[in-house]
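Sorry, explain these tokens?

***
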Amino acid sequence: MTTSSRVPRPLSDGTRNATVARLEQENTQLRHAVDSHAVVDQALGVLIAVHRIPPDAGFEVLREVSQHTNIKLHAVAEALIGWALGQPLPEPVEQELGEAVQRRSRKGDDPA
């Protein structure tokens, strides 16, 4: 029976620095993704509570508003959270939000 032991080779300073920089960048991207996800979840909660729509319809509402206004989804979510806290919604978001909620509410009313 042959066993081989893998002994890690020491990294050069350049390789170590590049690895650390890559990992720091990945860490930053992951933190941003987690923060964005939390904001979207909070906005979904607002839609569910205010408009009494199911979570999947709430996400579709956010997605549609984002696409129709050309505003990033997390920015739409932030605006909606701000609205729940008393801030006005930007006009294009307010208009599209009303239309998207109506579309989703009508789909929920269909017996089919």
